[in-house]
Amino acid sequence: MVLLKPHELNFIRQQLSHLIQTVYFVGDYRTLRLTEEAVEFKIGEVISHLSPEIRNLFQNITRFRGQGEVNTFIQSLSPYVEKFPKLSSNQVRKLFSKVKKLSMPDFEKMEDLALEYLGWRDIATHSLYLVYHEKGELYGLDCRYKPISGNKSVFCCLCNQRRIGNQIGLVTTKRNNDLVSGNYMCLDSQLCNQDITDIRKLREFMGV
Ligand SMILES: [Zn+2]
User: Fold this and answer.
1) pLDDT tens across 113-154, in order?
2) CA of 131 to the centre of ligand 1 (A)
3) Looking at residue 200, what is its pLDDT?
4) Domains of the chain
5) Ligand 1 center to 185 CA (angstroms)
6) Structure confidence by residue, pLDDT tens digits, 46-56
7) Which Pfam families does this entry report, sorted A to Z (predicted)?
8) How many angstroms is it from 34 CA to the middle of ligand 1?
9) How far is the CA of 159 from the centre of ligand 1 (A)?
10) DSSP states of 28-78 as a string?
11) Region 69-76 average pLDDT
């Protein structure tokens, strides 16, 4: 069965939350109707490749009038969302074979999570390890990060959310011996994953 990708679920949640915001803050009926139509159209595009069984869950998708209802709906979709594949420590070691003292992710904590990528840090060496999967293949990327100072806030290049202070760092990596630098990225990958609605930048960064 074709399932929803985590970033597609995030997109759906974002669209429905936008609808709720319009219900609350825009009194004008016409604007609300237009928003409903736009939301219905955008979500319709995202779910068009899914089976009728899943698409049926989206009937009257613009009926929600409170964020609580949206949250319950999003929660109800979780059986239909792709989970990140289970990794063994051997697989992780193989992906980062050049790293001498590799720290391992918390396998238990990440079990059964719907993630677009898996990321974990080694605070001692300021390393950030990223794993992405596509079509049964795993991609690993070994990065360094520099935390940003103070209350400066910047946008994460993967999730496009504004983050402040210790939530975000300047990330560099090497690809084919070339230095890839200057990417601000969330240091908490679970937080980042919740807000990714488009995976183009992630794929590009992972070299897919
Ligand atoms: Zn992010």
Assistant:
1) 999 999 999 999 999 999 999 999 999 999 999 988 778 889
2) 14
3) 96
4) 6-80 (1.20.1280.250), 89-206 (no CATH)
5) 5
6) 999 999 999 99
7) EF-G-binding_N, FBP_C
8) 30
9) 4
10) -HHHHHHHHHHHHHHHHHHHTTS-HHHHGGGTTGGG--SHHHHHHHHHHTG
11) 96
- Cα of 27 vs centre of ligand 1, distance in Å, is 33
**53 C-alpha vs ligand 1 centroid, how far in Å?**
32
CA of 188 to the centre of ligand 1 (A): 8
Separation of CA 201 and ligand 1 centre (Å): 11
> Does position 27 have pLDDT exceeding 80, yes or no?
no
Separation of 167 CA from ligand 1 center, angstroms? 9
Averaged pLDDT, 168-176: 90
> Which pair of structure tokens corresponds to residue 203?
């794929």
Q: CA 133 to CA 114: how far, in whole Å?
A: 12
The Å distance, Cα 204 to ligand 1 centre, comes to 15
CA separation for the pair 131, 207 (Å, rounded)? 11
Q: How many residues make up the chain in this entry?
A: 208
Distance 109 CA to ligand 1 centre (A): 19
